Amino acid sequence: MHAWPASEVPALPGKGRDLQIHDTATQGTITLAPGPVARIYVCGITPYDATHIGHAATYNAFDLVQRVWLDTKRQVHYVQNVTDVDDPLLERALRDNQDWTELAERETALFREDMTALRMLPPQHYIGAVEAIPGIVPLVERLRDAGAAYELDGDTYFSVEADPHFGGVSHLDAEAMRLLSAERGGDPDRPGKKNPLDPMLWMAARPGEPSWDGGSLGRGRPGWHIECVAIALDHLGMGFDIQGGGSDLAFPHHEMGASHAQALTGEFPMAKAYVHAGMVALHGEKMSKSKGNLVFVSALRRAGVDPAAIRLALLSHHYRADWEWTDAVLDEAVARLERWRAAVSRPDGIPADALVEEVREALSNDLDAPAALAAVDRWVERQIATDGEDESAPGLVSRTVDALLGVAL
Hints:
This protein is of the alpha/beta class and 409 residues long. The chain is built from 13 helices and 14 strands.
């Protein structure tokens, strides 16, 4: 599966700072100092309703991570998946009387278009669950053969007790885990499971549903969590720098994935940091497919909204915060974009070297994009009010905003 084209990232003078970021697993801020190549895995969409503002906010956060790392003169090895076969996708296709593969392909293509418009840097490896199946099957067989998995009526389940570190990502108690498991694709009430929290690794073929050759597992399809584990281990290995996604993935998805990988390899941890973006609400409720209260990036673009304004609206909220999308949020972003473009369109300006360092400092501090925007706002206000003489300043500000915030002025 191919990703989307990359926009050029301008080089800035000097060098950026190492990223300090909140780690869900340690429940605190840690400093990441990768080697020459920083490694990040971000969980992708299930392609049946793309791309809403909640998606965009999550991928914007991890786009900032990449930009901070690139500014430190590192390379970035970024991997993202597409869950192109799963119950919600099949249910939507059945509801709408569509072929599930056509639905997945169409929504994935739309996602690519939106990511391109928003200038999100693409992953080096963009992998669908279906194409990952040949690598998933051997991992499930290994877990089964090691006693970390078991069969139940033809399905194969992972035993959470196989990983002594289980629970160390989300830090939830058993009852909270059980409730979230039931809400987020698990089946804690299924009779015969060794532990209600045990997640499915391989689902035996069901009538009328797609299935693939699973070797000794029989025909079927993979569970949700093992999909990301197989892709991440194949392309990044253990101990990569960031496992990222929305805060609703901390449990069960990232918790279970970590346990799968740790049971497979005997190594700990799967990722050095588990980083989670907040949820976006609309009309007082979390924006979600199940509620149908979605604002789509493509619809905004069709209405003539500049993608740079959409991106500024996302950047105006800290990535870990839960916030609400409103017309006022977008209006403010549109006005900010106009002010910034007017300021950098002048032939000269006030010096901007200090601004570069202010933006770097803000983003290295747990991706504090609102602080970075405020720094640019202050420069813009002085630029508009003052006759500057630095001919290089407007261009430097434009390159800084482009390189570090992904906004083209």
